[in-house]
Write a structure and sequence with these properties.
Oligomer: single chain
Largest sheet: 2 strands, parallel
Strand content: under 5%
Structural class: mainly alpha
Helix content: 55-70%
Number of helices: 24
Number of strands: 6
Shape: globular
Low-confidence stretches: 493-509
Radius of gyration: 24 Å
């Protein structure tokens, strides 16, 4: 006699524990984080301006001036006429004279990645829920690869701006699809550790970029390195199956069972799918029908709106800090290595805190830590000539924000139903990209105002973000909702009916 089980029960039985083969699958899937981190911060290392590495060649104009940014910009020196760069490294900023009064163009090139990501995610809101997590990710990876390899041959900043837009357009389509896939394959007891592993992989990619940029002196070869990583991490996705949750929601039970059987064989699970009868609710909808659900289901509409606000504010904070490390510490590579290490530290804090306190309380705690760090960083106190209270507090604040960023991915994925998860994650990530595009401009505050001003701005934004979190329901210990109806029940903290309609007739879409 067949045993009736839901997809949640099957996944929990299928992945009862952690095995080397299971770790291999999740490791390969999360390698896309390397590419995401590299592409996000690529411009920092390819567009650097070495303001302390130049030599005067026009004694009348700059003879006797100190080799500083203030002297270079204050005297309005022209490259090739009044001075030459002495750095062994190259950058597109030096090559195209994007320094002093034109350095804002480097900021624009950085932010256009996030603008492209926003457009990509908005145009793909229905992509994941109609064509699948895997197919959406592969398409995004291909777009991103073409733009990245083309960046190696950019001839002016206008061309690079366009390519950065396309990079962002493709990369966030790819990564959001991968995250949905991971969340839907992970059982309830492993979703939190999986999110921690994702944060760790991001940190690995981040540190890899810092190390590679330190060793590669030509900015075009850094783009080549990024393209190679893009190609390899994208190619890995080809061998992965589609998400069985997505297939069931689309009514493709046969394919879903085949995927689960393949997965069971690969990780050597004793679960026998031939003895199991799947229960699920088919929900084949058009894009318009999905949108209408937001007006019909109040809980899903409210929580999606709150998540959008939360993602926008947390991303503004996270990338505001991420692009400000050269202002916090003068050494480019040391500063960003510190930021990458902050992510590693965050991994070992993020997972146990979420496990003990739950998603909501953990996120609020991380935000309180970030606000306190911003306040402490305003105090002038020097420990040693190279270290002061500002740097230490900012490092602590960066750890807290890394934990926040990792938590909102997990939190939102658990709040959203499978039928709408691709759309909701795309909308939230789009809001985050709008906030991310503001991050590079936050560094400009350090130029025109006392350093306490941007720290105060960071603190206020964090307080507002915590208000959005406070209004959300907690997902800790709950099953993942499959439909908007599940969201209504689960968000109300009422007993979850496991009564789900059985679909006998499969419909291929």
């Amino acid at each position: 006699m067949s045993k009736v089980m839901s997809i949640d029960e099957i996944v929990d039985h299928l992945i009862a524990g952690v095995t080397p083969r299971l770790l291999l699958i999740f490791f390969l899937a999360t390698t896309n984080c390397w590419n995401s981190a590299i592409q996000t911060y690529l411009i920092i290392f390819t567009g650097v301006v070495p303001y302390t590495e130049w030599e005067c060649v026009n004694e009348e104009k700059c003879g006797g001036l100190n080799i500083t940014e203030h002297a270079l910009c204050g005297a309005d020196l022209k490259h090739g006429v009044d001075f030459i760069w002495t750095s062994n490294r190259t950058s597109f900023a030096m090559e195209w004279d994007l320094y002093c009064g034109r350095d804002y163009l480097v900021t624009i090139i950085s932010s256009l990645f996030f603008v492209g990501a926003t457009f990509g995610l908005l145009t793909s809101t229905a992509l994941y829920d109609k064509f699948g997590r895997k197919n959406g990710s592969l398409l995004g990876s291909l777009i991103s690869f073409v733009a990245t390899i083309s960046g190696m041959f950019a001839v002016n900043y206008e061309m690079l701006i366009g390519l950065r837009f396309i990079q962002g357009f493709g990369q966030l389509i790819c990564w959001t699809g991968v995250y949905c896939w991971l969340l839907e394959f992970a059982p309830g007891h492993l979703r939190n550790p999986c999110s921690g592993a994702i944060l760790l992989q991001w940190a690995v990619g981040y540190m890899g970029l810092v190390g590679a940029s330190y060793m590669i002196f030509n900015w075009r070869y850094i783009f080549l390195m990024a393209a190679v990583v893009n190609f390899v991490t994208g190619a890995v996705l080809v061998v992965f199956p589609e998400s069985p949750r997505f297939l069931l929601v689309r009514g493709q039970e046969t394919r879903a069972v085949e995927v689960l059987e393949w997965f069971a064989r690969f990780i050597k699970s004793p679960l026998d799918m031939s003895t199991i009868q799947l229960t699920y609710e088919k929900r084949v909808q058009s894009f318009t029908e999905q949108v209408k659900d937001f007006s019909k289901y109040a809980k899903m509409r409210k929580e999606t709106a709150l998540c959008i606000v939360m993602w926008f504010l947390v991303a503004t904070l996270f990338y505001g800090f991420s692009f400000s490390w050269t202002k916090i510490t003068p050494d480019l590579y040391l500063g960003y290595l510190m930021a990458a290490n902050a992510m590693v530290i965050a991994v070992f804090i993020f997972t146990p805190v979420n496990m003990i306190l739950g998603r909501k309380k953990a996120l609020l705690l991380f935000m309180v830590c970030a606000v306190v760090s911003d306040g402490v960083a305003m105090i002038d106190y020097e420990f040693t000539p190279g270290w002061d209270l500002n740097r230490v507090a900012c490092l602590v604040g960066n750890v807290a924000l890394c934990c926040c960023y990792g938590t909102i991915y997990l939190y939102t994925g658990e709040l959203a139903p499978t039928s709408h998860r691709g759309m909701i994650m795309a909308l939230c990530s789009s809001a985050a990209r709008v906030g991310s595009s503001l991050g590079p401009y936050m560094t400009l505050l350090y130029k025109f105002a006392d350093r306490r001003i941007p720290l105060a701005v960071f603190g206020v934004i964090t307080v507002v973000a915590s208000g959005a979190v406070w209004a959300l329901s907690d997902t800790t210990g709950r099953r993942i909702p499959e439909t908007p109806k599940d969201v209504e029940v689960l968000s109300g903290y009422t007993p979850v009916p496991v009564k789900i309609k059985k679909c006998d007739n499969e419909e291929n879409v």
